[in-house]
Amino acid sequence: MQAAPTTSRFSVPAVPAVLLSIVSVQGGAAIAKGLFPVLGAAGTTSLRIGLSALVLLAVVRPRLGQLRAAQWRAVAPYGLALGAMNFLFYCALARIPLGLAVTLEFVGPLGLALAGSRRWTDALWALLAAGGIALIAPWGGTGLDLPGMALALAAGGCWAVYIVLGQRTAAVLPGPVAVTVGMLFAALPVLPFGVASGSLLALTPHLLLLGGLLALFSSVLPFSLEMQAMKTLPTRTFSILMSLEPVAAALSGWLLLGEQLTVGQWLAVGFIVVASVGATLTAAPAPALQGD
């Protein structure tokens, strides 16, 4: 998970902070899905990233003129990966249920955690995750949207790239500055699609309010909570807690959006969560960064 500035004077214990962050992100995703009929995925992503960047700029106030060339080289691709990840995820979310979109996206960081491993236990986790994907796949050619599934997997690939680039960026920039400047670059691969769609012309005060809530719940609040939690929480514990995200997404989709999953799809979510927890417990500790 990526760190970002916290502006609250109140302290939340580490574990509740992570859980609140997960709930906040999935609540934001539900808001986003409600905006799709009016703004589309491109317009919604543009609104979220644009407003998040403005809020972070106002709070962090990074001194852009003082950044060195090496810092720009690190933060630019990090931000571009962030923007691509969010855009692809919202494109997937427009076509498939929230719980399944997050579950498939989670395959990206899980694959990164398992990459290059030679432990037989990690092969077991990989097979378990593959079994989860197999349970989701509409083998009969009906049911779930195949392009939507592909987009979610592509978002997961961007998430894995984003984690690697985020670690490199964190080594040369403080977390709040990295996230703020990265959010500016995140707008670059998204805004052209948002402008081309024409959906941003449909913005009203009501939609701007919803966009502000989306930026708050999907970016500003969770990043702040996670930064606070990571000050005291071991990386492995943090990663295990984040493995609950697909379950939280499925529950959020059910409670907030009325999306129903089949028994097989719930099993798929469970398989991938167990694989993620298992990979975290058996692998060497590594930093994790926030997804969607």
What can you tell me about this protein's structure?
Helices cover 74% and strands 0% of the residues. It is mainly α. The protein has one domain (14-282). The longest helix has 47 residues, at 14-60.
Biggest sheet overview: none
Number of domains: 1
Q: Whole-Å distance between the termini?
A: 10 Å
Point out poorly predicted stretches.
1-9
Rg, Å, rounded: 18 Å
How much beta, percentage-wise? Answer: under 5%
DSSP strand count: 0
Distinct helical segment count: 12
The helix/strand order is HHHHHHHHHHHH
Relative helix content: over 70%
Mean pLDDT: 82
Structural class assignment: mainly alpha
Q: Which word captures the global form?
A: globular
List the helices and strands and how they pair.
Blueprint: H1 14-60, H2 69-93, H3 98-105, H4 107-114, H5 120-136, H6 146-170, H7 175-186, H8 191-197, H9 205-230, H10 235-242, H11 245-257, H12 263-282
Features:
mainly alpha, 292 residues, membrane, EamA family transporter, disordered N terminus
In short:
This protein is an all-alpha fold.
